[in-house]
Amino acid sequence: MSGPKNEKLLITRGVVTEALPSTLFRVEIENKTDLPAQATEDKEEEKEILAYLSGKMRMHRIKVLIGDSVEVVLDPYGGKGRIVKRL
Fold this sequence. Notes:
Layout: E1 10-20, E2 24-29, E3 47-53, H1 55-59, E4 69-74, E5 80-86
Parallel strand pairs: 3-5
Antiparallel strand pairs: 1-2, 1-4, 2-3, 4-5
């Protein structure tokens, strides 16, 4: 298990901007209000995070390409995320 059951997941949408080795992706987050505490005051600033594919997406060999809209579960500490759905 990944953590306590009462932990609230931060789910947001974004667009894949770069594909990196080892199924890592750079994702530009759309909705800045869902970000953890370090979110900036400037709403216009684009936030990019590093994201990896979830196990189900790897298992079913779902391809993610640059420009795809994805749903990301954010790490509560910030900086990384897990891609759980391709939109």
